[in-house]
Amino acid sequence: MFTGIIESVGLVRAITPQGGDVRVTIQTTSPQSKGTALSMHDVHLGDSIATNGICLTVVEMGTDYYVADVSGETLRRTTLGQWKAGTRVNLEKALLPTTRLGGHIVSGHVDGMGEIVVQRNDARSLYFEVRAPRELARYLSEKGSVTVDGISLTINQLSGATLSLNLVPHTANHTTIDDWKVGSLVNLEVDVLARYLERLMLGDRAADTVGNGGLSEGGVTMSLLQDSGFLNRR
After folding, report:
1. I want to staple 12 with a disulfide (CB 3.0 to 4.6 A). Which of 16, 77, 87, 193 is the partner?
2. Cβ(9)–Cβ(35) under 8 Å?
3. Coil, helix or strand for 211?
4. Residue pair 181/57 in contact by the 8 Å Cβ criterion
5. Average pLDDT, stretch 13-33?
6. Nearest residue to 149 (alpha-carbon basis) of 175, 183, 117, 167
7. Is 62 left (phi over 0), alpha (psi -120 to 50) or beta?
8. What is d(CA 92, CA 96) in angstroms, rounded to the nearest whole number?
9. Taking 90 as the threshold, does the pLDDT of residue 232 lie above it?
């Protein structure tokens, strides 16, 4: 698990095709980074590192790089399929029991890709609007948490599946946010509690779910909420 508090900005060194999927090599610092390199002294083979919000397993490493295998599912679900040598990425090592939980609980399992649709300055912060996939809208809430390219952020407002975000100068200076432009795709992970809550509310009906985890009748419905005791019967 992770917190969504970025430790360093790294660089894609190489992407190597491997019989249908790929192997990616990440340099743990970027020449354009304003922060420090990700320390590898306590990383071991098999450890997880969130790379632009994607939980990757270290299969090879050195003092300033690590290598990870990437499945076809990850290529389809995330922006990794668009990376190339030189792409900057946000890095965070898995949390320890003693880690300050400064962000929120992040699994590194990307739910889908969003698109930057608005970008502008807002006093000293940067303002963005991100259009999320329609099927993720039910997991988002105003003032709730969302992970964008591995960064733990608070949703200002929601309009349908479009969420607005404000990023303070510190976050902008220590992440890849400078690379975001209108039209850019970003990795989104919704709050893990929202995902599990929906499954728990389905109860025995969870065995009848199809596709993205929603019931064929539409997932969590008003009738399901009423049957589960969340709404008063009139």
Report:
1. 87
2. yes
3. coil
4. no
5. 90
6. 175
7. beta
8. 12
9. no
